[in-house]
Amino acid sequence: MMRLPRFRYRAPRTVDDAVAWLAENPSDAMILAGGTDVLPNMKRRQQTPGTLIGLRGVRELSGITNGQGLTIGAGVTLSNLLEQKNIRESFPGLWQAAAQVATPHLRNMGTIGGNVCLDTRCTYYDQTYEWRKAIDFCMKKDGQICWVATSSPKCLAVSSTDTAPMLQALGASVTLASSEGRRVLPIAELFANDGMHYLTRRPDELLTSISLPPSNGWRSAYWKLRRRGSLDFPVAAAAVAARIEGYDIADVRIVLGA
């Protein structure tokens, strides 16, 4: 049995409390939403934060609001997202992407924000501590070599999030909060082409919400290739959004994942 390392748990009730605690020691603290990615990583000693800041009690993060488009709180579970009729009708590609994440049990726990910020993966990184130690670890954690491509100067672990490619195709933006304030950026700018430093989110920042523009005229779809028909990360994925005007395609966006 793999056990969690020791850590301190803090349970804020507001975003302000969460980012204030995160700012105290951002290099030794991590956010815990659903825990479906963070806790297994901690058991494998890939991440060993001294403090976990749990977000379940922060109500601000669990809402879905309509306005000029749609705003989804980062703490909304994937199961809750799938229950929304307006998402299935207006943003079918996002509904398809969320529906293909893991299993119903994990979707009950996992959040949209957690899936967007999912850690990158590779065959050599996602192993137990003892397995990784036997190969002298890897560049992403405790080692010097990227075993995917041994001459690579950077880590080649890949993003395996299902929802982020679809959100990018739909033109979504994200809001990041810190003790210094909030900033909004296109979701495409949240990601970096580096397996180790894969997010542009600072360690002291918290993803609070995802905003989608109006879906008028847009159609979308998400396709996922995986080794097993269920409960598996994508080997490759395609998110497509197209805006239809009469019989013409006025605009189209294609985003590849994994």
Gist of the model:
The protein is built from nine helices and eleven strands. With about 260 residues, the protein is an alpha+beta fold.
Question: Main attributes?
Answer:
single chain, 258 residues, alpha+beta, five-stranded antiparallel beta sheet, three-stranded parallel beta sheet, 9 helices, 26% strand
How would you portray this structure in words?
There is one protein chain. 23% of the residues lie in helices and 26% in strands. It is of the alpha+beta class and 258 residues long. β2 (29-32), α2 (38-43) and β3 form a beta-alpha-beta unit. It is globular, with a radius of gyration of 18 Å. The mean pLDDT is 96.
- For the CA atoms, what is the radius of gyration? 18 Å
Biggest β-sheet: count, sense, barrel? 5 strands, antiparallel
Low-confidence spans: none
Average pLDDT value?
96
Secondary-structure map:
Elements: E1 8-10, H1 15-24, E2 29-32, H2 38-43, E3 51-54, E4 64-67, E5 69-73, H3 78-82, H4 85-90, H5 92-99, H6 104-109, H7 112-116, H8 129-134, H9 163-169, E6 173-178, E7 181-186, E8 206-212, E9 218-225, E10 236-245, E11 248-257
Parallel strand pairs: 1-3, 2-3
Antiparallel strand pairs: 4-5, 5-8, 6-7, 6-8, 9-10, 10-11
